[in-house]
């Protein structure tokens, strides 16, 4: 059995699974950020495909090991980045959104993740044709070192959120 197979059966580390669909828990640190990344249906399709193939994570500098090449409910991901040193970041896809004007996925934290919570990566095609990438998350410290270094953790989350959004900008979108 591989470590990804073991993580497929691991419990989530937070009780509010799926809460990025609506209101985050009141006791969690919540983040929502968006950025115009393109214009029109062609840009929407390109960003949609990139997000569902973990392009936001890779474009932000993360290494991605995933149990499927494209996000699907139950997909296990193990992320890592030189920014965080040797820390492994295990997650599992909670839900996928694939609508004509909105697409993306949310993953939740698994045992071993530095945080406890959920993050949604999505793109919307707005009525005016704007293509908008969205990151929405809630989290609580999941390990002793993230509890101790909570302000640093929030700063890193802010930096990564900006990197995720910047990774989706289409040529000419600014």
Overview of the structural elements:
It is a single chain. By secondary structure, the protein is of the alpha+beta class. It has a single domain (3-19, 29-166), classed as Alpha-D-Glucose-1,6-Bisphosphate, Chain A, domain 4. It contains five helices and seven strands, in the order αβααββββββαα. A seven-stranded antiparallel beta sheet has the order 1-7-6-5-4-3-2. The model has no long low-confidence stretch (mean pLDDT 87).
Set out the fold topology.
Elements: H1 3-8, E1 29-39, H2 40-52, H3 55-59, E2 63-66, E3 76-80, E4 89-99, E5 102-109, E6 115-125, E7 130-141, H4 144-148, H5 150-166
Antiparallel strand pairs: 1-7, 2-3, 3-4, 4-5, 5-6, 6-7
Q: Which overall shape is indicated by the principal axes computed on the Cα atoms?
A: globular
CATH superfamily: START domain
Distance between the termini: 45 Å
Unreliable residue stretches: none
SS summary, helix count: 5
Q: Over all CA atoms, what is the radius of gyration?
A: 15 Å
Number of strands: 7
Briefly note the structural class of the backbone.
alpha+beta
Secondary-structure arrangement, i.e. CATH architecture = 2-Layer Sandwich
Q: Strand order, main sheet: write it out.
A: 1-7-6-5-4-3-2
Average pLDDT figure? 87
């Amino acid at each position: 059995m591989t470590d990804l197979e073991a993580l497929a059966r691991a419990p989530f580390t937070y009780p509010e699974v799926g809460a990025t669909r609506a209101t985050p828990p009141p006791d969690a640190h919540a983040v929502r950020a968006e950025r115009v990344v393109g214009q029109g249906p062609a840009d929407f399709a390109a960003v949609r495909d990139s997000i569902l193939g973990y392009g936001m994570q890779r474009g932000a500098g993360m290494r991605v090991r995933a149990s499927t090449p494209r996000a699907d409910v139950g997909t296990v991901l193990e992320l890592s980045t030189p920014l965080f040193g040797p820390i492994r970041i295990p997650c599992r896809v909670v839900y996928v959104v694939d609508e004509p004007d909105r697409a993306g996925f949310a993953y939740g934290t698994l045992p071993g993740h530095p945080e406890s919570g959920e993050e949604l990566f999505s793109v919307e095609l707005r009525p005016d044709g704007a293509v908008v990438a969205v990151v929405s998350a809630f989290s609580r410290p999941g390990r002793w070192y993230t509890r101790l270094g909570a302000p640093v953790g929030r700063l890193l989350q802010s930096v990564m959120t900006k990197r995720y959004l910047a990774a989706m900008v289409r040529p000419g979108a600014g």
